[in-house]
Structures are given as C-alpha cells and as structure tokens.
Amino acid sequence: METHTLSNSSAKLIHNNKEQSISQLPIPDTLESFKTFGVVLFRGFGVDYQQMKNFAEKFSSRFVLDKDRPIVDPRNKYVTLVDPGMHYVSPHCENANSPFRPDVIWFCCGVPAAQGGETLYWDGIRVWQELSEELRQLFISKKIKFLQKFPAADWKRFLGVGATVADVKRTLNGIPGLTYNINEDQSISIEYVCSAVVKTKYGNQDAFANSLIAEYKNPRGVVTFADGSAIPSTVINQIQQVMNNLTEVIPWQAGDLVMIDNSRFLHGRRSFTDKNRRIYSLLSYLK
Fold first, then answer.
1. What is the CATH number of the domain that holds 282?
2. Which residue of 4, 19, 63, 267 could cross-link 121, Cys pair, CB 3.0 to 4.6 Å?
3. Minimal CA–CA distance to 106: which of 150, 68, 50?
4. How far apart are CA 65 and CA 282, in angstroms?
5. CA distances from 171 to 100, 126, 160, 179, 202 (A)
6. What is the tens place of the pLDDT at every residue in 215-235?
7. Could you read off the pLDDT of 38-85 as tens digits, one per residue?
8. What is the count of structural domains for the chain?
C-alpha cells in the first residue's frame, strides 16, 4: 500500500499495490489521514457500493438518507446514486442549508464517465482565507437564511416511512436558528439561519463551507441574508471567482472510494453526457 497526495491535489491518496482488501486498512491510521487532509481517495481496492457501506460502518455512528437521490438497493437504503441528471453541480456542503449536516460524504465510482463527470471539491479554509477583507467582514457581521419547503413524502423519507407530524415537531423544536410551519397538506416550510463561516470538525478552523452558491443558483432554492435582504449578485460573483482558482478534481477510476470532510470541503461535479456513469454516495455521522 502506498500513501501520498493525489497529483495536483491536496487529497490524500491511499493506493493498493498488494491486492489488499479495503477492509484490512487500519482504522486509526485511516481516520488520522481523514482528520489531517479532509479528502481521502482509496484507489486500487476495487470497491463496490456494498463494500463502501461496510467500510463506512467502521467509522460511522449512523447514516442519513438524502431526500432527492435514488436508492440503489432497497435492502441497503442509505446507499444512493448521486444527484440525478448530467449537469454541472455548483459547490456545496451536503445539507448545509439545514441543521442536519452529516460529517462525511462517501463516494464510490462504479463506472466513470467516458468524458467529464469528475467530482470537484474546494477547501473551505482556503476559500475563507482568499476572500477579500470586505467579504470576510460581511459574512462575519451577517448570517444567511435558507428557505425550503418539504412535501410530506420528503420528510417521511428523511425521518422514516412511519414518521408523523409529532415526530417532525420533536425533531425540529428547539434547534437554534430554525423556524418552521406545518402546512395543511402536511408539507413543512422551514427557515434556517446560520453563518456562512463554520468551524471545522477537526482543527476548529474557520471555513467558508456552506451551500450559498448552490442555493443561490438553484431555481428552486431561496437564500438571503438573515434579515431577508437579497445577497447581491456581485458578492456571489466575487466568491465564485475565488473558488474558480481553488477548484480541485477527483478524476474517477472504477472502484475508487473517497471520503470528504463535510465541515471543511465543498463539492460539486463537472457536466457529462455518458449515461453509463455510476457514482454512488453515502452520508454519515462519525463515531
């Protein structure tokens, strides 16, 4: 087994050159690499989505299901395909528009796209450091607000098929920055106020790790400053310019597995046209 950084990237690459199973990797060493680098790519282990789940269980206290992603196997409901479609996906942290941000994003490559479709990622610590002083002061002084509406089918997928409105209330009541309304059709309207700057899980460093750009550019998303005022497009453009200079790439190979620190790194993807592309995902909280 070889360990080094991925070419032209800050990610840690753990490469299997001994026909070793990924299940044989030492958990403490692997976790230490994850804490230090925030993105760890395992290559040459021939990982499939079931092996991804088995490996992730060694590190995880629980898994969470994304409401928009198609489930791969009904017997293993937490493993899903990545975002539907073949379009470019803007930088975001998973579920950062809600108080339910998981610790780790796991991706496994079944079939890479013939061209394009690479997963992109951005170190939120570096993004924060590269923003202008004016922008840093803006986001220190002003929080942001995400507005979302969840049909009953969506929150039941998240909480469990048998979940009730009472379960929703127990889950949402008392969460700092969150207000909600249960509508007549049992859909839920949520407003979530948070800082665009978060402390990383490891190292307690400031990171511009959020879903601001993704929600701003999403036709269905609504994001404003906490007082409801609009975020100027000039601010978004300045952030995007900084991030364009810090874009890093995972050039997928079949059998690759990657784990991403969701408190520090944003991720997205390049567009593609190959309908055979298969990237699987899993969201978890660490032990």
1. 3.60.130.10
2. 267
3. 50
4. 8
5. 10, 34, 12, 12, 26
6. 999 888 899 999 999 999 999
7. 999 999 999 999 999 999 999 999 999 877 788 898 888 899 999 778
8. 2
